[in-house]
Design brief:
Elements: H1 2-25, H2 35-38, E1 47-55, E2 61-71, H3 82-88, H4 105-112, H5 114-117, H6 121-133, H7 138-144, H8 149-157
Keywords: Signal
Protein name: PAR1 protein
Pfam family, one: PAR1
């Protein structure tokens, strides 16, 4: 009799934990996230969440999480971990989504570090796409960090620079492929 009561209690406990896990992880809607979990999250539909600041008529600043039109690649229902936020040097309080941080050498060093680049595919995917929008191929850009870091930053700042597409003949100078460029982290 006692073992049946324990079994029923155990089954109820397992069901309660499963329902709780489904509720907390299951269906992420950006508009339901708070300020501290919004940035670098991805909704159930695969759209990236973005932190926005609204100023009320009273002058009060209110932060809200919204859904951007930017889609994540192969990621859904995700709130980025604190480990990746720290490893990649990103800020949970960042407003909007922008490629401006690619102009900051300290940020680029963290983004291109093995800890971030190979361990945080959600953040790398976001900045890979932002860099591509600026005409920059992120793996090559990360490879160039160090001796050519200032030159790479200058090329991003200039409005005329457009990186050649990967695989095109212009991409590989003198027909030499760069096999040491970091690849995107596997999912």
């Amino acid at each position: 009799m006692a073992s049946q009561a324990i079994s029923k209690t155990l089954i109820l406990l397992v069901l309660a934990i499963a329902l709780f896990a489904q509720a907390t992880v299951g269906n992420i809607e950006c508009e339901n996230l708070n300020k501290d979990s919004c940035a670098y999250a991805v909704s159930s539909s695969g759209k990236r969440c973005v932190l926005e600041k609204h100023v009320r008529r009273s002058g009060e600043e209110v932060y809200a999480c919204g859904t951007s039109e930017i889609e994540a690649d192969k990621v859904k229902d995700m709130i980025e971990t604190e480990e990746c936020i720290s490893a990649c040097g990103v800020d949970r309080n960042a407003l909007g989504i922008s490629s401006d941080s690619l102009l900051e050498s300290r940020f680029v060093r963290k983004l291109c570090s093995n800890e971030c680049y190979r361990g945080c595919p959600n953040i790398v995917d976001l900045y890979f796409n932002l860099a591509a929008g600026e005409g920059i191929y992120l793996p090559k850009f990360c490879q160039a960090q160090g001796a050519n870091a200032r030159r790479g930053m200058a090329e991003i700042k200039s409005s005329g620079y457009v990186a050649p597409a990967p695989g095109s003949p212009e991409y590989y100078p003198n027909n030499v492929e760069f096999s040491s460029a970091p690849s995107l982290a596997p999912y």
